[in-house]
Each structure stands twice: as C-alpha cells, then as structure tokens.
C-alpha cells in the first residue's frame, strides 16, 4: 500500500468513526472518575440513584461516599454513564486521581466512609395486578429513577421459592389483616373497593384459603420467612403496621365480620403473640370495624378522632465507620423533613420492640417515623406515611409527578433502601 | 388642720390599696407568664404559673396557663397533682371541673372523667357543657362509643331531643356515618341556623357513593333547613346550576327572606370554580336584581351581565345589558354597561358598532381604559381583515402596546424590517404576560427570517391571527421554500405547531422533521421538542424518545433542555401523564 493510499484510507476510517462520535459526544468527559455530588448542587437527587444503579446493572462498580457531600457516589467515567447522567439531568463532576486521593483522605479523617457498590439488587414490589402505578411512593420513585423492578402479588409470594428471585421486597399500603384497609363499610359501593374485594376474595379462593384475612396472614408469614432467609424488606404506610399485626395474630381473629364472616375477638389485644412480629409489641387493637385505624401502633391516627397534626421528623446521625447500614439508610441533603400522613403515619415509641433502630423521629413526640431492624439473616426497614410529597394524600388525589420534586428528601430515604443491598457487606462492628 | 373624717377616709383608702397590691402584683406576674408563652418559652412560663399556684392553688388563670404549658411540653400528666390541690382549695368551681375532665382525659381515666362531669352536671343541671366536655375527652381516648353515650345521656337528662346535636353530628362524621351526621346537623340547624356553614363544610366531604342517599334524605324532608342544605350540597357536588333552580323553586314570597337566601347562595357559588358556578352566580345576581329597585337593581343587572360574559354566555349577558339600557336608574352605570357591551360586540364581530359605542363613553373613561379598549377594537378589526381601521387606532396610540400593535400591522402588510424595529422597541415586558410572550415569539421568528419585505409572510401571519389556520400553514410553507435553513426551519416549526393544534398529526410530524436541520440549531432544538411532544400526544411513546434524547445531548446549552427532560420522563413512563 503506498503512502498516499494509506493516508487516504486512514483519513476515511477516522472520519467515519471519530467525527460522528465527536459530534455526538459533546458530553464526553476526559477524567477517570465521575463524582455524583448529593448535596445542594445536585440537579436531580432522585435520578442520581438510577444512574448509580444502572452502572451496577451494566456490570460496573461504584462507591457510596457516606456523609461526604450528602452521600455522594463515585462512578467510572465511561461514555455510557456520562450520557446516562446527561439525559437524566444528573449533575456529575469529573474527578482525576489526585482529587480522588484527597477526597479519600478527607473521608478517612471524618465521620464518613466509602462503601463499595457491587451488585444491583433484584427488586420486587408487592402490588396487586392492575393497580394504578401512581398510587405507591416506591413504585413512583423507582420508575422516576429508572430502576428496574418486578411486580409480585400473593400467588408469587406463596409459591414455593416465589421470593427467591428477588433480593429486595417492597410493601406499601397493603392491609395484611385482610380488611381492605377498613374502608369496607365507609366506601361501600365505590368501584375501586368492589374491585379490590373481588380480586382479593378470588385470590384467597384460588389459593385455597377460607378467607382473605387467612390468606393475607399466610402471605405475611411468607414475607417474614423471606427476611429470615436473608432478604431485604422495605415497607411503608399501612403495610408496616398490618404486616406485624398479621404475624402476631396467628391464633386470634383480628378481622371484622365483613372480612371473614366472624367478628373480631374483643379480647384480641391480649391474645397477640408479639414474638412473631418484626418491629412492634404490646399494641392495642382498634375494635371498631368502621374506623380506618388498626391499632395504637400509629401515632397520628389520621382517620380517627385522635388524629394528630403533622410536624417534621429528624434523621439521626450515625457513625459511618461503625454503623454503615444505619448511615446508608439516612443519607440525605436534609436532616429535618416535613412529615406526611398515611393510613399508618408513624410508630409510637411505646410499641417498638427493644433492639429496633430508630432512624428518624419527631423531637418531643411520642412517635418515630423511620425504623430498621434485623430478623434472621435479613433486615427490614419501616417508613411511616404514604407519599413524602403529598402530605395529606386522599383517595382519588392526582398522582405525584416526581419531576416536580427532583430533590425530595423524603423520597431519597426510599432510594437509600434500594441501593443499600448493593453495598458490599462489611463486618459490622455493632 | 386636716379634718378627722378626711383622715379616716384616707386611712380606709390606704388599707384598700394595701389589700389590692398583692392582687395587682399577681396579675402582673400572670401577664409576664403569658408574655413568655407567646414568646415560645413554656418552661419559664410554667415556673411562674407554678409559683402562683403554690400560694393560690385554685387560681384559675394560673391553672389554665399551667395546663397549656404542660401540654406543649408533652408533660400533661403532671397536671394531676396540681388539679387535686385546686379541687381541695375550691371544691365548687365548674371551671375546675372542666379542667379536671381534660386532665383526666390526658391520663385516659374514663371513670374520673365521668365523676367530674356528673359533679359539674349537678351544679348546672340545665347546661350542655359538662356532657360536651365529657364526650370530647372520651373522643380523645378513641372511645367513640363512650362519647356517643355521654352525649345521648346529656340529651336525655336535658330532655331536649336536639341537645348536643352538633357534637353528635361531628362524632358521626368522624365515624364516617354520614346519614346520622346529616340527621344531627338538621336538628342543629333547626335549633340555630348559624350551624349551616359547618354542616355544609363537613357533609360536603362525604364520599361519592353516599351522596345520592344523603340528597334523597334531604329531598324527603320538606323543612327549610333541609332545603337549604340540599341546595348548598348540590352546588358543592358539581351541580351549581341545578342547585340554583332548586333554590329558585323554593324561594318564599317574602322578598326580604328570599333576598337573604339568594345572597347566601351567592356566597356559596362565589367560592366554587368553573363555568357552571359562574353561570349559577350570574343567575343568582339576576334573580336578586328582580327583587330590588332603583340603582341597586341596575347594579346587580350589570354585575350579572359581566359574570354571564365571563361564563361565556354572551346571549344572557346581552339580555342583561339590554334591560339596563331601558332602565332610567342605570344612568350612573352606563359606562360600565357600555364597556361590557363593547367586549361582547367585539367578540361577536360587530366591531364598528363597538367603536361607535366607545366614542359615546370616551369622556367617562380614563385615558388608559380608553386606549386599552381601542386596542381591543383594533384586534377585532384585524380579525375582520380591516387593517386600515386597525392602523388608525395604532397611529393614535403612543403607548408601548400601541407600538407593538403597529409592529404587527407592519408585519401583516409585509414590512418585516419595520416590524422588527417596532417589536424590538416595544420590548418584552409591556402588556399582559400572554401579550408579551406572543410578541417575543413573533420577534424571534422574524429575526431569523431573511428579507426585509415579505408580503407572503405577512399574509400568512395575518391569516393565523384571523384564525384561518389552513391558509396560514400553506402560506408559511410557501415562504419557507424560499428561505435559507434557519428561516425555513423556524417557519416550519410554527406551521407544525399550527397543524398539531388542529389535530393534523401527520402534517405536523412532517413539518417538525423537516425543521430538524443542523444548520438551524435553535429551530432544530425547538422542532425536536415539538416532535417529542407530538409523539407523546399521539401515544407513540417510543418515537418520542429519540428526538428528545438528541436535543438533550446535541444542544446541552439550549434553554429547552429542562422541558425536553420532562417530556422524556413522560415518554419513558417515569412520571404520570398530566
């Protein structure tokens, strides 16, 4: 090949390969690392979790800098990650090795830690089929952040090995006492309630249970077993309270007559076996079938005469190097977050089991907001309330558009939970 | 020498003063505690109240202050010993009984609550208050059944079937028992009509499923209270016009009473949004006008005309104005009536008649109002194609808005250079926000179009202003063919927007795609955004992703990127479609 021909061919190849790339990749970054800052400079806190998650999904690795600039992420500066961040509107800062060394030194000296992120958890959300996708804070934020998840319901949970395909399971406003959130009498005649009753009774019958409460209790027990085997459970709203009530009521009828044909045992509170529950103990059950309240676990009692006003809850500050799990769960750019109602909004301190880690509470109030604990090989985290950006959420309210709340500190707590199972397990010191 | 009687009087006054001094001092101390409470220092305030109570255990103000402070500090149970000391010091005080009920309520001691409520009831046997406090304390303990029993016991002992009905109604609402709540509210309103707003406010929250049943109950009850409640609830539950018709059918012959009913309904519908509520409001004003005479009647007719016009019922608005024109008492309102009529005439295309009317009232209008109405006329003439007449208005208007109007007229005549200069001078701020945005968009378009004189472009934009979209699109496309890349792309984006607004998706898509040219980056970014929006509106979500991603990546500095990201979220199903 003569020189002129070589140059011509080389130029053609270069033009064909590089020029379009250069034109297309004005967002390309010439640095080995990308820092995703999670303090106030971040342009979309929620999508930042999605960018980190997708790096892991592509087989990449990252690090979570706990307590460093609001809980920042260190990601490889490959083209796909940079493009993904640009499309998502997530602010990233190119980082060279020198600066990374300085950051690591800073982390070493303060109440901070660098946690490797290795494997994306397989996420499952417990949700009835055909449920509106916009009525569940976790589904909403997973979709907004672009984190893949599968949906499971009773049949999948109760199938042998049904939850073996997931690492992280989320529950939202499901009523595991099988009483349709105790809306049965109040909303009699409403189309959505009729659908809910039909779907649940059909499922209980299909699975061979005598009633919906019996079937839901079996589901609760399967979920507890999933945690026992090493699963990560995250629950919000009324799923927190009713899951424990279902677990603790193995030998007592806590469901109203409309749910199982027999009235609730009037002495149910005294007959509960709280050793079976994950988080709560010694709760007093609500006996009225018409009052949409289950027990005094919830401090706010949103639909009862005891309704308490909303305040704000404060995240606890943990030692990053000693308690990395608790620290991961509270990473945020805000310490104090406005409270929000749910059928279960908060958890009264009186009903917490010893050993439960309180992650956030309202100062001076008899309740806490955000708790965590272990069961067997796994962990559970309960977060009270329904929608962090719709404090007074009512049935039929328009769905929350998270693109209007890209910095939501309340939603960040949910995403901390999603990413926490991706962290490489360290020997815990406490 | 001072007389002895004067000395005695002086001594007596001195003794009185000395006796009163501690009371003044105590009052001063309590005032200090109140000030501390207001400043948000309940701990210090509590210390003062406790010091007063050490000397005077039954001092009511100090007791109430201590109760407030301990409640704020979440130490309500510490009131128990304080209360016990107060009862020993003053065993016959009903105020202390009321306090005792609240304190035992915090301690969740139902038996003690009952004891003090019964004691209080014995001291004041005809009073509802003991039962009200008793039931309230039990409600706070989640004991709704007990609360109901307390209220019903009070009703029985007072031998009054409607006693404590507001409390029982609220209790039923809290138990989601709306039918019972309705019955109790009706009793309460019979007793005291002032309860109606509370009844409406609480009952209007009833779920959709129970509303028809509640209305049926009200329809069966022929009492005025039931009729009034039915009307207010219908208005709030989406049928304000139907509610008005029911109100009209139930108006009594007595003019004063019916006037009150209409005024109350007017207050209700004024608080409701939507065209139906505006129509109901106008109908109520008209009905009120019929019950008045003189200037009042004329004023109500004028207001009704204006509200009808806002609701889009121009025929009814004109009917009101026509009755005003024959009303000798409406002389003082002629300016307002004519202004309303002018806006109706312009909307109906009778611009010359509107202009004639405007000249009749010119002397009564402020210069600003006159100029604004003249510009409305000019807009009407533009829509009618009478550019000369519109230009006559613009020439006589030296305001910034007048300058912008002249700019648009120059553009419609094809004088692009003149239009550019005038619209630029008018700037982006004058007029309403919509006018300013419209003007800025027009200026942005003609700044990228090449050529100082383009009659075809003027004709196309005039057609657009005259709402002849089809001619406008054809004209814009024709002009685009002779333009360089940037001008052509901008014109195609505009034409595409018009087609999209007309529901011509395929045409709009063709135009937006044609505008995606690298040589016109600003318009290309706009075209990509519009293409993404169009694909989403056509439910072709996967096809929306590519242009939006391209916009974000290729034009990262574009001001359209945030909007593109938002649309991308929608296209990917990451956020709900609104």
Task: Walk me through this protein's architecture.
The complex is a heterodimer of chains A (430) and B (578). With 430 residues, chain A is of the alpha+beta class. Chain A folds into 2 domains: 31-117, Alpha-Beta Plaits (2-Layer Sandwich); 123-422, Rossmann fold (3-Layer(aba) Sandwich). Helix content of chain A is 33%, strand content 16%. In chain A, strand 14 (367-375) and strand 15 (378-383) form a beta hairpin. The radius of gyration of chain A is 24 Å and the shape is globular. Mean pLDDT of chain A is 87; it is low at 10-27. Chain B is elongated. The model of chain B has no long low-confidence stretch (mean pLDDT 89). Chain B has 578 residues and is an all-alpha fold. In chain B, helix 11 packs across helix 13, helix 24 runs antiparallel to helix 25 (433-448) and helix 25 packs across helix 28. Chain B has a domain at 501-578. Chain B contains 32 helices and no strands. The N and C termini of chain B lie far apart (95 Å).
What is the helix content of chain A? 25-40%
One letter per element, helices H and strands E, the order of chain A comes to: HEHEEHEHEEHEHEHHEHHHEHEEEEEH
Mean pLDDT of chain A: 87
Unreliable sequence segments of chain A: 10-27
Q: How far apart lie the N and C ends of chain B?
A: 95 Å
Q: Mean pLDDT of chain B, rounded to whole units?
A: 89
Q: Helical content of chain B, roughly?
A: over 70%
Radius of gyration of chain B: 37 Å
How many DSSP helices of chain A?
13
- Any idea what the shape of chain A is? globular
Instruction: Provide the gyration radius of chain A in Å.
Output: 24 Å
Q: Helix count of chain B?
A: 32
Largest sheet descriptor of chain B = none
Number of domains of chain A: 2
The top level CATH class name of the largest domain in chain A: Alpha Beta
Largest sheet of chain A: 10 strands, mixed
Q: Label the structural class of chain B.
A: mainly alpha
Defining traits:
heterodimer, A: 430 residues, Alpha-Beta Plaits, Rossmann fold, ten-stranded mixed sheet, five-stranded antiparallel sheet, 13 helices, B: 578 residues, mainly alpha, 76% helix, elongated
């Amino acid at each position: 090949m003569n020189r002129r021909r070589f140059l011509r061919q080389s130029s053609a190849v270069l033009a064909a390969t590089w020029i379009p790339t250069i034109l297309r990749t004005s967002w390309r970054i010439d640095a080995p690392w990308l820092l995703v800052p999670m303090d106030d400079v971040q342009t979309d806190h929620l999508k930042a979790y999605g960018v980190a998650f997708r790096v892991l999904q592509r087989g990449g690795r990252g690090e979570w800098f706990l307590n460093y600039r609001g809980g920042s992420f260190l990601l490889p500066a490959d083209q796909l990650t940079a493009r993904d961040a640009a499309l998502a509107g997530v602010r990233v800062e190119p980082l060279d090795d020198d600066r990374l060394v300085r950051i690591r030194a800073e982390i070493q000296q303060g109440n901070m830690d660098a946690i490797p992120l290795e494997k994306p958890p397989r996420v499952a959300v417990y949700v009835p089929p055909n449920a509106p996708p916009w009525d569940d804070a976790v589904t909403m934020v997973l979709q907004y952040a672009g984190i893949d998840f599968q949906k499971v319901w009773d049949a999948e949970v109760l199938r042998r090995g049904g939850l073996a395909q997931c690492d992280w399971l989320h529950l939202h406003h499901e009523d595991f006492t099988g009483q349709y959130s105790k809306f049965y009498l109040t909303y009699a005649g409403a189309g959505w309630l009729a659908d809910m009753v039909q779907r649940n009774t059909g499922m209980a019958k299909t699975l061979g249970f005598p009633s919906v409460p019996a079937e839901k209790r079996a589901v609760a027990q399967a979920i507890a077993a999933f945690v026992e085997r090493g699963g990560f459970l995250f629950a919000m709203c009324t799923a927190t309270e009713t899951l424990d009530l279902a677990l603790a009521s193995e030998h007592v009828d806590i469901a109203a007559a409309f749910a199982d044909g027999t009235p609730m045992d009037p002495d149910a509170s005294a007959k509960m076996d709280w050793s079976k529950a994950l988080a709560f103990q010694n709760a007093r059950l609500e006996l009225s079938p018409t009052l949409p309240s289950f027990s005094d676990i919830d401090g706010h009692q949103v639909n009862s005469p005891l309704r308490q006003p909303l305040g704000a809850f404060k995240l606890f500050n943990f030692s990053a190097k000693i308690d990395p799990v608790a620290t991961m769960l509270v990473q945020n750019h805000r310490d104090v977050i406005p409270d929000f109602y749910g059928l279960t909004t908060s958890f009264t301190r009186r009903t917490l089991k010893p050993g439960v880690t309180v992650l956030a509470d309202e100062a001076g109030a008899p309740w806490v907001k955000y708790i965590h604990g272990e069961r067997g090989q796994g962990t559970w985290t309960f977060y009270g309330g329904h929608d962090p950006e719709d404090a007074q959420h009512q049935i039929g309210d328009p769905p929350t558009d998270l693109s209007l709340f890209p910095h939501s500190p309340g939603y960040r707590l949910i995403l901390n939970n999603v990413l926490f199972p991706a962290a490489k397990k360290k020997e815990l010191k406490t | 020498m001072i007389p002895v009687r004067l000395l005695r009087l002086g001594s007596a006054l001195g003794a009185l003063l000395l006796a009163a001094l501690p009371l003044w001092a105590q009052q001063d101390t309590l005032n200090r505690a109140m000030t501390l409470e207001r400043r948000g220092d309940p701990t210090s305030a509590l210390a003062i109240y406790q010091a007063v109570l050490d000397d005077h255990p039954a001092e009511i103000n100090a007791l109430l202050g201590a109760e407030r402070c301990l409640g704020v500090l979440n130490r309500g149970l510490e009131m128990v010993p304080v209360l016990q000391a107060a009862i020993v010091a003053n065993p016959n005080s009903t105020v202390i009984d009321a306090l005792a009920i609240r304190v035992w309520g915090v301690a969740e001691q139902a038996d003690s609550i009952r004891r003090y409520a019964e004691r209080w009831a014995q001291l004041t046997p005809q009073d509802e208050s003991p039962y009200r406090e008793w039931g309230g304390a039990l409600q706070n303990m989640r004991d709704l059944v007990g609360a109901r029993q307390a209220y019903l016991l009070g009703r029985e002992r007072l031998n009054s079937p409607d006693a404590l009905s507001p409390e029982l109604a609220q209790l039923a609402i809290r138990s989601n028992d709306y039918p019972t709540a309705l019955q109790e509210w009706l009793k309460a309103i019979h007793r005291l009509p002032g309860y109606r707003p509370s009844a409406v406010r609480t009952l209007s929250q009833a779920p959709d499923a129970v509303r028809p049943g509640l209305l049926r109950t009200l329809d069966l009850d022929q009492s005025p209270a039931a009729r009034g409640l039915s009307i207010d609830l219908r208005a709030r539950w989406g049928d304000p016009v139907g509610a008005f018709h029911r109100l009209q059918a139930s108006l009594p012959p007595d003019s004063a009473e019916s006037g009150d009913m209409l005024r109350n309904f007017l207050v209700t519908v004024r608080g409701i949004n939507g065209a139906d509520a505006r129509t109901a409001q106008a109908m109520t004003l008209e009905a009120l006008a019929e019950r008045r005479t003189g200037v009042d009647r004329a004023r109500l007719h004028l207001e009704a005309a204006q509200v009808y016009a806002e609701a889009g019922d121009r025929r009814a608005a004109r009917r009101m104005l026509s009755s005003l024109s024959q009303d000798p008492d409406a002389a003082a309102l002629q300016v307002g009536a004519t202004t309303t009529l002018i806006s109706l005439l312009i909307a109906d295309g009778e611009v010359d008649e509107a202009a004639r009317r405007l000249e009749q009232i010119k002397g009564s209008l402020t210069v600003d109002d006159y100029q604004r109405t003249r510009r409305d006329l000019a807009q009407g003439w533009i829509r009618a194609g009478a550019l000369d007449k519109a230009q006559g208005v613009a020439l006589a208007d030296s305001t910034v808005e007048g300058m912008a109007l002249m700019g648009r007229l120059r553009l419609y005549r094809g004088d692009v250079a003149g239009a550019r200069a005038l619209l630029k001078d008018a700037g982006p701020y004058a007029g309403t926000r919509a006018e300013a945005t419209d003007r800025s968009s027009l200026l942005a378009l003609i700044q990228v179009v090449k050529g100082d004189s383009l009659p075809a472009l003027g004709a196309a934009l005039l057609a657009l202003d005259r709402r002849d979209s089809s001619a406008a699109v054809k004209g814009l496309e024709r002009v685009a063919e002779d333009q360089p890349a940037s001008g052509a792309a901008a014109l195609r984006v505009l034409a595409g927007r018009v087609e999209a607004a007309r529901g011509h998706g395929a045409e709009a898509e063709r135009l937006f795609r044609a505008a995606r040219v690298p040589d016109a980056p600003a318009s290309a970014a706009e075209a990509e955004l519009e293409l993404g929006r169009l694909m989403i509106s056509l439910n072709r979500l996967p096809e929306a992703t590519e242009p939006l991603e391209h916009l974000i990546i290729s034009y990262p500095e574009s001001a359209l990127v945030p909007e593109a990201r938002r649309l991308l979220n929608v296209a990917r199903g990451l956020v709900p479609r609104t």
